[in-house]
Specification:
Layout (H helix, E strand, L loop, with lengths): L1 H10 L1 H21 L12 E7 L5 H16 L5 E9 L2 E8 L5 H12 L12 E2 L8 E9 L4 H17 L4 E8 L3 E7 L1 H7 L3 H11 L7 E3 L4 E3 L9 H5 L2 E5 L2 E4 H4 E7 L4 E5 L2 E2 L1 E7 L5 H21 L2 E7 L2 H30 L2 H24 L6 H34 L6 H31 L3 H38 L19 H19 L1 H18 L15 E7 L6 H15 L5 E9 L11 E8 L5 H15 L6 E6 H11 L5 E6 L3 H16 L4 E6 L3 E10 L1 H6 L4 H12 L2 E8 L2 E8 L2 H7 L1 H6 L1 E3 L5 E3 H4 E9 L2 E4 L2 E10 L4 H12 L9 E6 L4
Parallel strand pairs: 7-25
Antiparallel strand pairs: 1-3, 1-4, 2-3, 2-29, 5-15, 5-16, 6-15, 7-12, 8-9, 10-11, 13-14, 13-18, 17-19, 17-20, 18-19, 21-30, 21-31, 22-30, 23-28, 24-25, 26-27, 29-30
């Protein structure tokens, strides 16, 4: 069969070369239009559900929101794990499915089950977050301004900029941190309510009536249809202040007499800084399976379109992070490797054969093989990512082997044929020379392919990561074999066989003087070495065996790791303060950390995100994420040196938990362990007190292990709570009901959204709430003195209707597989993964677990 293929290529050489040109051009075409991504989509199909429960404490969120959702979801087919987090006012449930599950079908099944969930009144319907890939962050932007206030800057980000970004093709979502969300606030004064004998219900009802928007319908005449369009809705605080709440003794009592009405900032969930200055940070997420480079170009175009507006308003735009840079670097490196490989092939072949034509024929195999592999990968629906590009890069040295062996043997046989007394037809010589080495080349090629086949059998995250690398390498090697069977013989016949007799090649087998200089030099050096080996072959074999054994023993001293240390030039620093830390205090801590890190010369920009954004990661105000972007073109050693410097700069900050990751390593860890740390020890049990006690003991033990870094209990206890325990008998005595009392508390400190105000396409909430001074400065005293209007017209203080006391409670409640759990996460540095995991197992072996409590490992250590 191989002989027939070579014979066909020689007889139809023009057609073969034409097809090779077509393959080259087609490969270039698909290379330009291929789907590029940072990493292959290594994460299994996952659906995330977020439910907003305004004002509810973590325990209430867990019981009333998270548990009902989990009960409905957990029975779906194909579910691998269910993970949930309940924090104040927010429930997040993440369902991971088996790798073979169709993610769109999984979302459909989840949507059907969510429709059957019954949640308490006042809790918003559960929503599935948009689908994004494992490395779905396509860009992180920052906005700062000397002219605009934080509220104006956030409004600019929420409306024109966000709408412009969402309109870009391939963008799934934008997460916005920082600034101050603008809204209209009716800040009622309790003393004024008492003065006019009015209650909060009347204020809220008046605010709702003031902002109602209703369609008026139409009028049909004999020949026309007239659409009724109402106008004149309230648009300013002054107009709201004139709204009538009640009429007493012939006089109107307005909202302005009972409250101060302002355009103010909503209760903040997040904060952001850029280079130590307050600003707004926007994380742009790409759609599932989108082309990262194409989406980046679309986002860049959207930013160019809105840039004049930003400049006009005095807003500076910062590109804080752009993962597409990794792809550009990988493509540039691949191009450099291809160029360097081609030059080396040509130089080496010329030095050994003294013939540029043979070198050129061999070089043709490199671009043809790689482009053929790219063509196959794109037609299979795979993206070109760091792993597949790495497979192409390491295949460059291999794809040229087949062509080199083939063309060298053909050139040698043609030289011998020219010197023969009766030369045979050149096409016959080329055919025999190619077939002569073909079987050995085919065997060697398939042997190399067989070495990579086990990688295709890997499962889980490892399989998803390394399978594209193996496929790119295998397709390149097989393509090089096809090129050596067809294109190389055809080119050899056209360029070598028709060489004129006046330009003969030197024959290494007939005349040593005619050999190339390098070959003569190597021959003189090799001859005494060969004689020595033949004379002392026993000692040579013993030395080889000893070196082999020594090499095998050295394997045990190598550092082991699931993946190499990525050096992409971007770090993510997680900072966790004590439970109950306020947003302002976290921002103050972040500013101090930023000031400590800014003198590092290799750092290009520093940005900070505190708390959580809508549809983003559920984090409390005590958690911050600092993005550290390095200057471009730093070496891997420089990246590691910067990481060591950052850790050294953080040592003076006591009482804080730090975790330093690269972007790619963090996404990997989050997929494997469920957290941003590479290793997680999950503790399960029936009693939460026992689980927390064991988790605390584990954290203390892990901190003592050499190399441990960023050890943290993921759901720490001890956040300060204020319990408001209603007195039913007292409430009934005053003729009140519990809902009225609870609504008064909610309206005072969380606020009640009574409606919306509209300005063009912008929509702002209208919230009834206490003034900021009473909510924050007076705090507990204002809560105790909060007046509640009884049916008889009397006012009752909240302290009379409920017991109010300060206690300690959970900040976050975790569920794993529908069960309450606690997790201890840790990173490591300065030690290999295998060594650290061994120390971890040895340390945890000494912990005695109570009955009903057990551990589970997750992350790179478990993998």
């Amino acid at each position: 069969m191989l002989t027939a293929i070579v014979r066909f290529a020689l007889r139809r050489r023009v057609m073969v070369l034409a097809l090779a040109v077509i393959l080259f051009l087609t490969g270039l075409f698909f290379l330009q239009r291929a789907k590029y991504d940072v990493f292959p989509n290594f994460a299994p199909p996952m659906v995330a559900i977020q439910t907003t429960a305004p004002g509810l404490a973590p325990r209430q969120v867990e019981r009333l929101v998270t548990t009902p959702i989990e009960v409905r979801i957990v029975g779906l087919p194909g579910i691998k794990t269910v993970f949930s987090k309940s924090i104040q006012g927010l429930s997040v449930v993440k369902i991971t499915f088996n790798a073979s599950t169709n993610v769109y079908r999984a979302r459909q099944l989840v949507a059907e089950r969510l429709g059957m969930v019954r949640l308490p009144q006042g809790i918003r319907a559960p929503l599935m977050t948009p689908m994004v890939s494992a490395t779905g962050t396509v860009m992180v932007l920052g906005l700062t301004s000397h002219r605009l206030s934080p509220m104006q800057l956030r409004t600019l980000a929420d409306w024109p900029l966000r709408l412009q970004l969402l309109a870009a093709r391939g963008v799934a979502n934008t997460l916005i941190y920082g600034g101050a969300v603008e809204e209209y606030q009716v800040q009622f004064h309790p003393r004024q309510l008492i003065r006019y004998h009015l209650g909060l219900r009347q204020v809220i009802a008046a605010a709702r009536r003031a902002t109602a928007l209703r369609g008026a319908g139409l009028i049909n005449t004999a020949s026309q249809r007239l659409v009724l369009e109402t106008r004149g809705q309230l648009r300013s605080p002054a107009e709201l202040a004139a709204v009538v709440v009640a009429r007493m003794q012939g006089l109107n009592v307005t909202l302005g007499q009972l409250a101060s009405i302002h355009r103010a900032a909503a209760p903040r969930l997040s904060a952001a800084t850029i280079e130590g200055r307050p600003g707004v940070v926007i994380s742009v997420k790409s759609q599932y399976g989108a082309n990262t480079l194409a989406v980046t170009r679309q986002v860049r175009a959207a930013l160019r379109a809105i840039a004049p507006t930003l400049r006009k308003k005095g807003v500076r735009l910062h590109i804080l992070f752009e993962p597409a840079t990794f792809i550009h670097v990988a493509l540039r490196h691949l191009g450099n490797v291809l160029l360097l490989g081609g030059v080396l092939v040509i130089v080496v072949l010329f030095l050994f054969l003294f013939d540029l034509r043979t070198a050129a024929i061999s070089f043709v195999a490199i671009p043809l093989s790689l482009l053929a592999a790219v063509l196959v990968l794109t037609r299979l629906g795979d993206s070109l990512n760091i792993m597949s590009l790495g497979g192409l890069a390491i295949a460059i040295g291999e794809v040229v082997d087949d062509a080199v062996i083939d063309v060298e043997n053909i050139a040698r046989r043609l030289r011998q044929n020219r010197r023969a007394p009766a030369p045979r037809p050149a096409i016959r010589v080329v055919l025999e020379a190619s077939v002569e080495v073909r079987s050995a080349v085919v065997y060697a090629t398939f042997a190399v392919v067989l070495i990579f086949l086990p990688i295709l059998g890997l499962t889980g995250v490892a399989g998803s990561l390394f399978r594209p690398l193996a496929l790119a390498y295998i397709f390149s090697i097989l393509a090089s074999l096809a090129v050596a069977l067809t294109v190389t013989p055809a080119l050899s016949y056209l360029w070598l066989a028709r060489r004129g007799a006046n330009n003969p090649m030197p024959d290494a087998s007939t005349s040593q003087a005619a050999q190339p200089p390098l070959v003569r030099l190597l021959t003189r050096a090799y001859q005494p070495c060969l004689e020595f080996v033949e004379r002392f072959y026993v000692w040579v074999l013993a030395a080889v065996a000893g070196l082999t054994l020594a090499g095998m023993l050295l394997l045990f001293s190598f550092h082991t790791s699931f993946l190499p240390n990525f050096k992409e030039g971007h770090f993510i620093l997680h900072v966790h303060a004590a439970p109950g830390t306020s947003l302002a205090e976290s921002q103050r801590i972040g500013d101090r950390i930023t000031q400590a890190l800014r003198p590092i010369p290799e750092i290009r920009s520093i940005s900070e995100r505190i708390g959580h954004a809508t549809a983003g990661e559920a984090r409390g105000p005590e958690a911050a994420e600092i993005g550290i972007d390095l200057k471009p073109h730093l070496s891997g050693a420089a990246n590691l040196a910067v990481a060591r410097t950052i850790r050294r700069k953080l040592k003076p900050f006591f009482g804080l938990s730090f975790q330093l990751n690269t972007f790619l390593a963090e996404r990997m860890s989050e997929t494997m362990s469920g957290f941003t740390s590479p290793i997680a020890i999950n503790v399960f049990g029936l009693r939460l007190a026992s689980v927390n006690r064991v988790a605390g003991e584990i954290a203390r033990v892990v901190k003592k292990i050499p190399g441990a870094a960023g050890v943290r209990i993921r759901a720490p206890q001890g956040e300060p709570h204020i319990h408001i325990h209603l007195r039913p008998r007292v409430i009934a005595r005053w003729g009140l009901d519990p809902v009225t009392v609870l609504q008064a508390v909610a309206a005072a400190f969380r606020g009640v959204v009574a409606g919306q105000m509209y300005h063009r396409e912008e929509v702002f909430n209208l919230r009834v709430i206490l003034p900021p001074r009473m909510r924050h400065a007076e705090g507990l005293q204002a809560l105790q003195r909060l007046p509640v209007l009884a049916p008889g017209g009397n006012y009752v203080r909240l302290a009379q209707l409920a017991r109010i006391r300060e206690v300690s409670g959970p900040q976050t409640i975790l569920h794993l597989g529908g069960r309450r759990a606690q997790s201890v996460t840790t990173g490591f540095h300065g030690v290999s993964l295998g060594r650290f995991v061994s120390r971890l197992h040895a340390a945890l072996a000494g912990i005695k677990l109570p009955a009903g409590v057990y551990l589970q490992y997750a992350g790179a250590g478990a993998a």
